[in-house]
Specification:
It contains 1 helix and 5 strands. It has about 80 residues and is of the alpha+beta class.
């Protein structure tokens, strides 16, 4: 019984720790920086893109939902999709 309680507590702690870092934002793309591989939403937040997401696929005026995390002072995108 004691081992199962410890195992459940460890799983809950791990799940809450990993979920705490991923965030989501929705908005309209205000600008795209092709040289910097980044874009800025209309609220002023600037997001850096990983190598597996091409900046050329983004267009100013497009409404998107971004999943991101903060790394080294930058908002790093992990996923981006059209907003509903």
């Amino acid at each position: 019984m004691k081992k199962s309680v410890i195992a459940v507590a460890a799983i809950v702690a791990l799940a809450s720790a990993t979920g705490a870092y991923a965030k989501a934002a929705s908005g309209t793309i205000a600008s795209v920086d092709k040289k910097g591989d980044s874009f800025t939403l209309s609220d002023g937040k600037t997001f850096a893109l990983p190598e597996n997401i091409e900046v050329e696929t983004l267009k100013v005026g497009e409404k998107v939902t971004v999943t991101y995390s903060a790394k080294a002072g930058k908002l790093m995108v992990s996923a981006i999709q059209p907003a509903n």
